[in-house]
Amino acid sequence: MNIGVKIAGVEFKNPVMTASGTFGSGMEYAEMVDLNRLGAVVTKGVAAKAWEGNPTPRVTEVYGGMLNAIGLQNPGVDVFIERDLKFLEDYDTNVIVNVCGHTVEEYCEVVEKLNGTKVSMYEINVSCPNVKEGALAFGQDAKVLEETTKAIKKIAKKPVIMKLSPNVTSIKDMAKAAEAGGADAISLINTLIGMKIDIYKKKFVLANKTGGFSGPAVKPVAVRMVYEAAHAVKIPVIGMGGISTAEDALEFILAGATGVSVGTANFSDPETTLKVIDGMQQYMLKYGVDDINSLIGAVG
After folding, report:
1. For site-directed labelling of 69, which of 9, 41, 57, 126 has its Cα 20 to 30 A away?
2. 275 near 245, Cβ under 8 Å?
3. Count of CB atoms within 10 A of residue 279's CB?
């Protein structure tokens, strides 16, 4: 029975990885989760310089999931290389670094510094505000997305995954733009934009007013978008959004995803990724599936 997959030439022992921003860089979870069993560890966002993030409060539970407005707080790429990557090098798993920036130059600076490391792939967070375009996210304009992808691909020495925002009119157009820019793969969905108001204090619950909505409630939207994107492009797709069980993950694979990322569920059960891997194998045994790849995009 084969549960391994290949994405942009990179071999994965299984399709299951962590979603950026929900697993740190693995250090916080290593005592509870055997990182060696994962297809990949996808790190939190890494920028050219340290980002402080947004003011608090910046996380709140909501019906069906959570809102976060962390603001991609991170220590910057130099600290990340010296501390986080050194830690991850001891594990037998792929390392995918989520890259964030406010300008194309910032993205490229991070990628250039990571080129000489043992990183397997880059995941580019195009939901970041583009300061040169009036803070419109890179991933909300197809032309900007294509040009950003091209610029990063010119200097990247590892495969590039463009992480798409769901906060767009047509996910197909964004997927095609990433592919046209030379992306080796795409991942989706990033968080939806949500809001929560305290009716007693008559105030926004988050200091930022809005936050990224994630968790079980977004899964039907995510599955639909993964299906649409996978049928619009020829490059591999990594699906995410509300995955907490093997059944959830298999939905994404049947919709066309080659890999899947577990995010919000890690906060309530750090072992979710391992349970998803085990559940996939049990499903394959029960239904006589010899190769997980035969399930990719198996629905019409």
Report:
1. 41
2. yes
3. 17
User: 64: how many CB neighbours lie within 10 A of its CB?
Assistant: 13
Distances (CA, A) of 111 to 61, 115, 239, 241, 268: 34, 6, 23, 26, 32
Pairing of strands 94-99, 121-125: parallel
Residue 44 has pLDDT above 60, yes or no: yes
Q: Which domains are delineated in the chain?
A: 5-54+73-191+214-295 (3.20.20.70)
CA 156/CA 158 separation, integer angstroms: 5
Measured between alpha carbons, how far is 74 from 63 in angstroms, rounded to an integer? 28
Is the pTM above the cut of 0.85?
A: yes
Catalytic (active-site) positions: 128
| Token pair recorded at residue 142 | 């197809």
> Which of 85-89, 130-134, 153-157 shows the lowest mean pLDDT across its residues?
130-134
Distance CA 1, CA 175 (A): 32
DSSP state of 233: -
Nearest to 164 by CA among 133, 131, 142: 142
Q: Give the pair of three-digit tokens for residue 270.
A: 């750090």
Question: What's the one-letter identity of residue 251?
Answer: E
Token digits of residue 186: 């795409």
pLDDT of 137 reads: 79
Q: How far apart are CA 219 and CA 255, in angstroms?
A: 12
pLDDT tens profile 224-277: 999 999 999 999 999 999 999 999 999 999 999 999 999 999 999 999 999 999
From the number of C-beta atoms within 10 Å of its C-beta (0-12, 13-18, 19+), residue 80 rates as: buried
- Collapsing DSSP to helix, strand or coil, 193 comes out as strand
Q: How far apart are CA 161 and CA 237, in angstroms?
A: 9
Question: Could you tell me what percent of the chain has a pLDDT over 70?
Answer: 97
Phi, psi of 205, rounded to the nearest 5 degrees: -70, -40
